[in-house]
């Protein structure tokens, strides 16, 4: 006999897009669903995201008339991933339309297609992109739930609350899912509640032991199963070190105090197998004045150099490929951190890229995360790289920019390279992705290896069942999102694959519980 604090049908641990999709899948069928969120606010890393969701061949793409299909998506994933995780590849693609159909039955859930190209030039690629996005959510439409949504990273890191403005991106997704859950009447939300361990009866997981918002222990029984969708290990320096995960916890885009691998460890304690714990959804990070990382994307100017003052990549690569290039280069020559060298073409102190969150040039210069100089040689001295090397690197790149061809790294040749670059109106810049570095003063911004979360975790099957090392499943236990080892392995196929896979496999987990 167990001494239960409360009982329910389904427990979902985590509150990102995947977790809440799983919770809604259960609650919409009338199942009493308990959602446990470790921190004070709901949304996890999903709330920080732009909320592109890679769910192919759905009614949303059909409405947009973009010519996407399940077959194209299958072709693309197979071309990139080969036969690895083939069963899960197929399940992911084939289930996407059902997930969107279920969600859009609820009046709170609205999606639209927005252009953002897939990341690899392979068969089945959608040049315009296939990701869908939640419609922006007016602030007043969310009601009192708005106080529980994690705000954008800069505000959240400073301890602020969601401002009184329209929710966009990941905040819109989380807000809409919370409204949909509330509408079912079958969901119970707990914040400041940490799941500590899994409760086993025989060989089946029957519940979760947690600590509630008062610090008291609670034991929750689940009739059908437990879904773990509580992020990865990115916030744990100890787990990153133990698993040789590149980068640092302080550089990750994961929310502070969350995603420390608690549930991965809890599952391992009862026999679960893991995989890919050295992997993440990589990205370059602008080092912030406080030493944390800020997601950098959409670079439209400047060059990135290593500790020798030399280029080593196409700076316009998709962010995961950019991060992988940093890791590879750092094995031969120090490249973490690297430096983004840029001029004042867009104005003094204007970073030629998107930084999430942002800081002012004055704050960066005061902290030393950026340096400024009137000449390239002086800039090299300020950041400690050989002046002759940096000057030669800039001169070579400037020649490429004038001719419109990057002979070293083909920057500007792929459509993704040009996605964030406004068309050039100058004869001196025939390639919109290439602009000379010639208008002083000059800047160097320290670029670190960041991530959008780790992507290694518990091994799962096509129904998100957690597996043992021998391939058998642990009855009653499921995992999705970054708590599970990703089906995409060491690749990032396109915008929204982390959210898309999290949502699909959370949905499949609940559907399997109900069989």
Description:
By secondary structure, the chain is of the alpha+beta class. It has two domains: 6-276 and 455-513, FAD/NAD(P)-binding domain (3-Layer(bba) Sandwich), CATH 3.50.50; 282-451, Flavocytochrome C3, Chain A, domain 1 (Alpha-Beta Complex). The protein has 14 helices and 19 strands. A hairpin with a 2-residue loop joins strand 6 (194-201) and strand 7 (204-211). The radius of gyration is 23 Å and the shape is globular. The two termini are 26 Å apart. The model has no long low-confidence stretch (mean pLDDT 97).
In short:
The longest helix has 19 residues, at 86-104. This protein has helices at 17-27, 59-64, 70-81, 86-104, 153-157, 169-184, 237-242, 262-269, 319-330, 361-367, 376-383, 387-403, 415-418, 497-513, and strands at residues 6-13, 33-36, 111-113, 132-134, 187-190, 194-201, 204-211, 217-228, 274-275, 280-287, 293-297, 303-305, 338-342, 354-356, 370-373, 442-454, 457-458, 465-467, 473-479. By secondary structure, the chain is of the alpha+beta class.
